[in-house]
Amino acid sequence: MKTNLKEVTPTPMRCIIGGCPAVFKDVTPKTMNCVIGGCPVIHSTEKNYFIIGEKVNPKDFGLDKKVGNNEVLVKVPKKLIDDKEE
């Protein structure tokens, strides 16, 4: 299922077809923001969270039967979620 990330994009910037700019809120704790390079982050829309973290092998954590074919297991520091901005 494709998620519509354009829920909070200003109406004049919304596109009907193709790739378009989208706006979503960064709720990463300020203490975990990085200046350079890729870092774990949380973005949100009205209905979803999108988490960027380290992709890990579910078998390494005994979760291979819990992760579906269209899913990935992502590892992030616990503080990222516990202290997320509202």
Structural class: mainly beta
Distance between the termini: 26 Å
Strand content: 15-25%
Question: Largest beta sheet: what is the strand line-up?
Answer: 1-2-3
3D shape: globular
User: Regions with pLDDT < 50 over 5+ consecutive residues?
Assistant: 1-7
Mean pLDDT score: 74
Q: Count of helical segments?
A: 1
Helix content: under 10%
Described by strand count, sense and barrel closure, the largest sheet is: 3 strands, antiparallel
> How many DSSP E strands?
5
- Radius of gyration using CA atoms only: 15 Å
* Element order: H for helix, E for strand: EEEEEH
Can you give a write-up of this model?
This protein has 86 residues and is mostly beta strands. It has a domain at 25-82. The protein has one helix at 78-82, and strands at residues 25-26, 41-44, 49-52, 54-56, 73-75. The strands form two sheets. A three-stranded antiparallel beta sheet has the order 1-2-3, with no helix packed on it. Strands 4-5 form a two-stranded antiparallel ribbon. A hairpin with a 4-residue loop joins β2 and β3 (49-52). The chain is globular. 3% of the residues are buried. Residues 1-7 have low confidence and may be disordered.
What layout of secondary structure does this protein have?
Blueprint: E1 25-26, E2 41-44, E3 49-52, E4 54-56, E5 73-75, H1 78-82
Antiparallel strand pairs: 1-2, 2-3, 4-5
Could you write a compact summary of the structure shown?
The chain is mostly beta strands.
